[in-house]
Amino acid sequence: MKPFTYERATSVEAAARAAASVQGARFIAGGTNLLDLMKLQIETPTHLVDVNRLGLDRIEKTEEGGLRIGALVRNTDLAADATVRRDYAVLSRALVAGASGQLRNKATTAGNLLQRTRCPYFYDTRMPCNKRKPGSGCGAMKGVSRSLAILGVSDACIAQHPSDMAVAMRLLDAQVDTVDATGARRAIPIADFHLLPGDTPHKETVLKAGEIITSVTLPGPIGGTHVYRKVRDRASYAFALVSVAAIFGKDGTARFAFGGIGAKPWRTAEGDAAAAQGAQAVAEATLAGARTTHDNDFKRPLVEKTLASLYRQQEARA
Amino acid sequence: MKFDTPAGQNPIDQGRVIGIPHDRIDGAAKVTGTAPYAYERHDAAPNAAYGWIVGSAIAKGRIAAMDLRAAEASPGVLGIVTHANAGKLTKGSMNTAHLLGGPQIEHYEQALALVVADTFENARAAAALVRIDYAPEDGKFDLAAERLNGVIPPQGFGGPADTKAGDFDGAFASAAVKLEQTYTTPDQSHAMMEPHASIAAWNGDKLTLWTSNQMIAWGVGDMAKTLGIPKENVRLVSPYIGGGFGSKLFLRADALLAALGARQVGRPVKVAIARPQIPNNTTHRPATIQRIRIGADKDGVIDAIAHEVWSGDLPGGGPETAAQQTRLLYRGDNRLTAHRLVTLNLPEGNAMRAPGEAVGLLALEVAMDELAEACGVDPVELRIRNDVQYDPEAGPQRPFSSRKLVECLRAGADRFGWSKRNPRPGQVRDGRWLVGMGMASAFRNNLTEKSGARIGVDGQGRVIVETDMTDIGTGSYTIIAQTAAEMLGVDLDQVTVRLGDSRFPVSSGSGGQWGANSSTAGVYAAAMALRAKLAEKAGYPADQAQFDDGLVRLGNQSQPLAALAGGQGLWAEDSMEYGDLDKRYAQATFGAHFCEVGVDMDTAEVRVRRMGGAFAAGRILNPKSARSQVIGAMTMGVGAALMEALDVDTRFGFFVNHDMAEYQVPVHADIPDQDVLFIEELDDKSSPMKAKGVGELGICGAGAAVANAIYNATGIRLRDYPLTLDKLLKAQAA
Ligand SMILES: Cc1cc2nc3c(=O)[nH]c(=O)nc-3n(C[C@H](O)[C@H](O)[C@H](O)COP(=O)(O)OP(=O)(O)OC[C@H]3O[C@@H](n4cnc5c(N)ncnc54)[C@H](O)[C@@H]3O)c2cc1C
Ligand code: SF4
Hints:
- Chain A has 318 residues and is an alpha+beta fold.
- Chain A contains twelve helices and eleven strands.
- Chain A has helices at residues 12-21, 34-39, 75-80, 82-87, 89-96, 101-106, 109-114, 165-171, 190-193, 269-273, 279-286, 299-317, and strands spanning 5-8, 25-28, 47-50, 59-61, 67-70, 175-179, 185-189, 212-218, 225-231, 242-248, 254-259.
- The N and C termini of chain B lie far apart (62 Å).
- The chains are: A alpha+beta (318), B alpha+beta (734).
- The interface between A and B is large, with 39 and 40 residues.
């Protein structure tokens, strides 16, 4: 870990200003991702702005009938919230499928969206990695890549976005609310929030320096059956090989978002449009343009199989 | 004391304290955090500085240049140890690679420097400023690619590399049923809870090391040898150990570098090997390729059996002796085993819980399942038919000291409900799960090692035992206390046990599942000597004195131990040594594993639903701690079957998934109900305790039972561990 300075921000605006004014500053929320990366010197912030006490820990209804989730709401609290469990069950299910109880107690809504990849080469500073050290090459592509992404990848990087929560957020068409150093606010649709790697895999979101997430807003509830299915090598405490968030409507429509396979939480209009034709059609539409390695080509059939499982369960319910 | 004839009736047979499922006597200290582990010995070395290890970024080559200036100028830095300033170091006799590398580099993450600073954070930050320029060389990292270059390895713990009896080729060629298959197992990491950690302090030329080590005397010897100082000048203290599984059998980099750092900066230094460094810096269980051929008659009776194993290690290293059990487990007049070793420049391979059998049975017991199916014989029945009561390589003149495999198979099958298994694979469904049952034999050699102890009674009648034996979470404290209490006729709470200090008599240490039986036998020997002294003081003939209730008795006379011990206390020391009973008799432990799995019919996720086993391992000294050993080992067997694998990057020559997020071991949610039955057995040829080891038996065969259950559930036979869903999906598509 490199020495760094630390301040506890007193307001959202002050936090944004502080972070923008110091080169290499970072916000810290639960710290469950950032601190691990700092210990390994994968992240080397010079200054930490603590955003834990800005009152961003409330969940409230919006005038439009949706739900505003404070950026600092802990994953545990969000998963247990009565409204979320009733109206956005897929989000609750995705959250409890992630990490462990201890981690979820610390992890926050914004931190979870911004967690970084679990690519093992990213985690070893002696290895080439374009995301960690632009221009150094990609260690994973011709190496051990079983867990990595097959969609949205580039010649520079095939890292997966490891979040479960973000997959449900993507399914629910969430928007990410921010404030920047000038005090300007914006609402970023989650589909546009994460960037694909292209040839700049170190750039992961559209956030500008100092721009702070204040909340994530969900539109009004989407009725239907909410499911989250996470496929992994052990029963708990493992990242997804493939995960599927889905809402099945009564009329045969459905929507799907995927984790474990994309450079960002993955959802396509084509996939949703194929819903009525069943698992195979949805898989084919979703996987258009997929690029696999020798290690992770199993994810292609696994997407279809996982969808097939969900369809079968849905039929059993109907 | 020498054990060279079978044990007769002795005080252990009373079974007053021995054989009772007592709670651990160190349990309260452990769960309240008052049992200090090596890195926490602030009491012993309050002013310790902190060391951080800099590991090599290449697998093979040389250090071209090292620039320490930035690190030395970093805040709080007290010194930096490198090969250039460490003085002359010899390699420990148990180490394959040097614990401090440079200028030659033998493997990735080999320690090249230790940065010592006033705080942990300063040491770690400065370590990142050490600049090393490398001159890399090509290495060999791919076992499969190197297989044909295998050579006959030197003889180590596992006996000779090759064995033969009868005419395998001829018998195999003419067998009615032939099975020939190749199985592979990956490199594995011990993943024990406590990382390797040490604090070193020098007093003049005398070194004290608070460390985490399974084998105190080996550690002393190799520390002295490495530093070129007399053994008498090295003291090791290791009373509490947070798991080892073989990873802490030997002197490791934390210990040596703490000693070197402390010498350089003139104050105590503490060093832990950080979790992400462990898989590549320390040892691991080597990967294997195993070819098995079995020739049987149509009823499955084996006439010919061959097991050949390939594994790799650094130059000067040893093989994974995965064919060991095949020498002794099943009948057959025509047999062959062979181990071949290839040179690999991966980190050092070495012992991990049940080296040899743990992976050997992953292959052999799946081969037996395949044979059972080929012959149309029930897998349990097949093993019963192939039982043999003597060493099948040596013949009937070398019987087993005791062997209750068949009893284990029958009792285990019964309890598990094996008869409900549908022998046709892929037939049973429970919702989205395909359900299958599998079984495997368990086998692990029984080793006995010389072990000493000192035992005394003080003026209050308390019994004190001192031995350098270690408790690596296994329960040594408790069974040693039970032994002493039994021998001297006192209650368990009257006994104090002190372990893990090189000032105490040399014990067997903890390894190879020899610790429990050997170390308690050493306590038995010392206790016999103390009984003689106490009887003499009492004026009773030693062979007629009785010990109970804190008294020494003869007929209706008695004298309290406390009075006999007097103010000075009375002490005796002895050790147990072994004659040739293990040559005259084959000695091993046996069992049978049963397992039920569910395999998701779509995603091929495998989840274990139920496990059970029956085990025969001589006298069970403490059924509670023995059960804990067995269920822990079964859990490791599940890991080996389903998820554990160090992924090798064959370009850079290192294990890629070197942390606990990516190297997966089972979590609670993976482990269902585990049922353990111990079959009654006393082995009078093993030791006066009539016990055998049980710490490793539970892993042996457990993974194969899982693999066979997967086959029964799905009809898919996988032979490359771990059996992950991607392999099942691929096999299903093929
Ligand atoms: C062992 C382990 C297993 C895990 N398993 C899973 C899993 O299965 N599924 C899963 O989804 N996740 C998993 N996680 C990841 C976990 O969910 C994340 O670490 C957590 O959500 C991050 O939240 P945090 O508040 O701790 O973020 P921090 O570590 O505090 O921050 C993460 C990033 O977000 C930035 N940030 C934080 N708050 C704001 C804000 N308000 N505005 C702008 N930027 C901000 C920080 O600057 C930093 O870059 C696992 C983590 C670990 C350690
Ligand atoms: S996949 Fe991306 S994160 Fe992984 S090594 Fe390549 S560039 Fe780095």
